[in-house]
Amino acid sequence: MIPMPPLPAAGSPPASLAQLFGRGQVDVVDLTATLSEATPVLPLPPEMAAIPPFRLERLAHYDDPAEISLQHAIHTGEHVGTHFDAPRHWWSGRDGEDVAGVPVRRLVAPAVVLDAAEACRRDPDFLLEVEHVRSWQDRHGPLPDGGWLLFRTGWDARSHSQELFLNADREGPHTPGVSPECARWLAEETGIAGFGVETVGTDAGQAFRFDPPFPAHRYLLGTGKYGVTQLQNLALLPATGAVLVVAPLKIAGGSGSPARVLALVPTSAAFG
Ligand code: MN
Question: Which of 83, 107, 158, 240 has the greatest number of beta carbons closer than 10 A?
Fold first, then answer.
């Protein structure tokens, strides 16, 4: 007689988190750009304070007498590389959370991916509009309450080069972003926790000309939502079903921080 595996009892508890990871049923995808002195930095108009680029300062390299360690000091602006924007980053959110005050429950949350890479290839100034998000929702369901909307533009392929990444000419940078109407709608009419992009900031390259200027910063941070920038590998994520882990440094009074951003993605084995 062939022994039969026991059938799962009706109502048996779901696998624990540890079991899911142990069985290889969760992939961990790194959405973070490597930080180095080559990391692109957004040049700001002369009337604004310049963002210092990332720099490592060597403190010890096993070499001085009696020196047995490797150590650096890190120098960087808060808004460099893959980084997190706290509400307090913008004037409209000045009474909101600093980066240390963001509840961790908000930093581990579902994420959905809206892929506009093809449109952005044709038009680097492509703007996400409400109708694009609505048509995405018609196919994939509602945006996740308390979760992230990740905007795929294909810009991660340019992140090795400041010139390609900023794509600037005399009129300023040409990079995709969000229209003022869509930024206001995402902020006020949806329950998302934040908006993630592959570009150097959550606003379009030409957003300094918009009315109002920098609408993603103004509306999203002004309603207590968050931003994450310079993501990569969004092409590896499903449109829905991933969980994002966003880990900025817990800097008291900080307006943002370089962040490690990871996506937890159920593998096909999880559905077997
Ligand atoms: Mn920023």
Answer: 83
0.90 exceeded by pTM: yes
Distances (CA, A) of 177 to 33, 47, 142: 19, 23, 21
Distance 228 CA to ligand 1 centre (A): 7
Give exposure, 50-80, as e/b (b: 16+ Cβ within 10 Å). Answer: ebebbeeeeeeeeeeeeeeeeeeeeebbbbb
Indicate if 89 belongs to the active site: yes
- Residues 43-61: pLDDT tens digits? 887 888 899 999 999 998 8
Residues having C-beta closer than 5 Å to ion ligand 1: 79, 85, 256
Dihedral sign, Cα of residue 227, residue 230, residue 234, residue 235: positive
Among residues 79, 83, 89, 217, the one annotated as catalytic is 89
Sorted by sequence, the CB contacts under 8 Å of residue 260 that are 6+ apart come out as 30, 32, 82, 245, 247
Positions of E strands within 86-144 = 108-115, 127-128
State how far the Cα of 109 lies from the Cα of 52, in Å rounded to an integer: 30
Distance from the alpha carbon of residue 131 to the mean position of ligand 1, in angstroms: 26
From first CA to last CA, the distance across the chain in angstroms is 26
Ligand 1 centroid from CA 64, angstroms: 38
H or E element that contains 82: none
Q: Is the dihedral of CA 122, 39, 35, 148 positive or negative?
A: negative
Question: How far apart (Å, rounded) are the C-alpha atoms in residues 11 and 204?
Answer: 49
**How many A from CA of 229 to the centre of ligand 1?**
7
Question: What separation in Å is there between the alpha carbon of 270 and the centre of ligand 1?
Answer: 35
Query: What are the tens digits of pLDDT across the range 99-119?
Result: 999 999 999 999 999 999 999
